[in-house]
Amino acid sequence: MEHNPEAPWYRRLHWQVLIAMVLGALVGAQFGEPVADRVGWIGDLFMKLLRMIIVPLVLTSIISGVASVGGGRSLGRLFGKTMGYYVLTSFFAAFVGLLMVNLIRPGVGANLTGADRQELPELSTPDSPVQLLLDIVPQNVVQAAASADMLALIFFCIVFGAALSTLPDKTREPLVQFFDALFQVMMNLTSGIIKFLPIGVFALITRMVATTGFDAFRPLAMYALTIFSGVTIHFLFTLPILLIVLGRISPRIHFANMREPLLIAFSTSSSGATLPVTMKVVEEKVGVSNKIAAFILPMGATVNMDGTAVFECAGALFIAQALGFDLTIMQQGIVVLVALLASIGAAAVPSAGLVVIFIVLEAIGLEGPDVNVIVGSMLAIDRPLDMYRTAVNIFSDSCGAAIIARSEGETGVDTEIR
Ligand code: ASP
Q: Residue 381 Cα, ligand 1 centroid: separation in angstroms?
């Protein structure tokens, strides 16, 4: 990945993106409408590239993540605890996202598309959690993949990965290697596309400023504040409370032991790239056994993403607000559940969260050119948010490893700052 502390500042992606934003704003303000058409297609092209990778990236990311645990039925209890922890924390995270978006209401009254508001179409949200559950189970997996029915695909990949992990080593290993290799290909492809992020951001910001002027920046700043506060609540309150209540672990000690991977996650925006350091530190400094760390962390890096869950939920509701939709409680509840699933589907690479937000949007029936324009402007300011949510993603993994190690009777966990 792009994390290379030796690289000069202008080679780092976040600086490039920042410069692209400033340049885009200047060009858009200077040349107005005509330039919007000239460069707009570059932004659209970039968004299409991102959408192109959704299906294969999600598919390989989940299968290789879930299947990596291996070891068959003897690890069933550990698997159950781990999944329980992942779902619980991701649910809390998505719920905090929901609360913050209703509190701050960043999208209300925003005009991000430059278009006059037209009649709003009906949203095709599932009517109830039961309906959502029925929709999640595919009738036909191939059709689900072909029509990018992501929820059904995510469900299938989780059960497929779990079934794969129960095979005897001889049959399991070649398959796991196969899916791992495919996943590596998709990660490389994603990183390759992300290299063009500054160009995409330049085009998207130019078009945004050229069509709506600087009006769009206020709702975008409010949106960033919403994500930032949601992720912070999860980081500073929810996870520490879980550490204390479930693991009797001092959050201060755990945080101090984890500072190195936290910083690396922050600067790489990739849980995957941080994983080797997370594993080393969780074993050597936090004091979790290799058995538990090697079981929980690789799967957690791709499956358990709390910061991303906050983002998926709050981001999708922001778009709905900005387009003038007033979602019912039931529809918002559905967004929470789908955001949780989307965070499971997101791969551990930069900007993956933004790629899978389409899953949440499509699940509530939000699609079309206006939606693309808004996601495009969110993409333009996504980098700092991605850095922060990635750090929280890996922090949740390490908290999970510590809590589960404690519950398995390990006594050396976070006894001191090492
Ligand atoms: N970059 C995040 C990660 O690797 C995923 C995301 O974009 O939310 O954990």
A: 14
The tens digit of pLDDT for each residue in 232-248 reads: 999 999 999 999 999 99
Mean pLDDT rounded to a whole number for the chain: 86
The whole-number average pLDDT for the span 194-207 is 86
- CB of 390 shorter than 6 A to ligand 1: yes
Q: What per-residue confidence (pLDDT) applies to 1?
A: 41
Between the CA of 118 and the centroid of ligand 1 the distance, in Å, is 34
Q: What is the pLDDT of residue 232?
A: 97
Instruction: Please enumerate in sequence order all residues whose Cβ is within 8 A of that of 33, keeping only pairs 6 or more positions apart, or say none.
Output: 210, 211
Domains present along the chain, CATH in parentheses: 10-407 (1.10.3860)
Q: Which atom of ligand 1 is nearest the CA belonging to 382?
A: 7
Tell me, using a 6 A CB cutoff, whether residue 257 lines ligand 1.
Answer: no
pLDDT class of 2 with cuts at 50, 70, 90: very low
What lies within 8 Å, CB to CB, of 61 at 6+ separation is 183, 186, 302, 345, 346, 347, 348
Per-residue tokens: 251: 């959050």
Find the 213 Cα to ligand 1 centroid distance in Å: 30
Evaluate: CB of 247 within 6 angstroms of ligand 1. no
